[in-house]
Amino acid sequence: MDKKPDKKPDKKPIVNAANVKKRGSLKDYFKGVRTEMRKVVWPTRKELASYTGVVIMTCVVFSLAFWAFDSGFLALLKAVLNINM
């Protein structure tokens, strides 16, 4: 006869002072933000202009592609459903 192993109850994590994070003050938060912002390497004007151009051109290309797809799909639906506008 097979014996089923006894199930042991799940152990709960031990909560002590080392595991509990203290909630800092608002002043400490902004102090940390300021410290991290000083570590940021900001792009030069030339890099910023280049990145902006890439983003704008990407938006233009995708908008034209979506417009072409939408127009083609609309023309296909008009032809299949025999819709006249």
Overview of the molecule:
The structure is a single chain. The chain is built from 2 helices and no strands. With 85 residues, it is an all-alpha fold. It has a domain at 44-85.
Short account of what is shown:
With 85 residues, this protein is mostly helical. 60% of the residues lie in helices and 0% in strands. It has a domain at 44-85.
Question: Secondary-structure blueprint of this entry?
Answer:
Layout: H1 26-39, H2 45-81
Query: Unreliable stretches, pLDDT < 50, 5 or more residues?
Result: none
Order of helices and strands: HH
Per DSSP, the total helix count is 2
- Please give the number of β-strands: 0
Question: How many whole angstroms does the radius of gyration measure?
Answer: 30 Å
Shape field: flat
Largest sheet: none
- Helix and strand content put the structural class at mainly alpha
Distance N terminus to C terminus? 79 Å
Average pLDDT score: 87
> What percent of residues are in strands?
under 5%
- Assembly category: single chain
Helix content: 55-70%
Tags for this entry?
85 residues, mainly alpha, 2 helices, 0% strand, flat
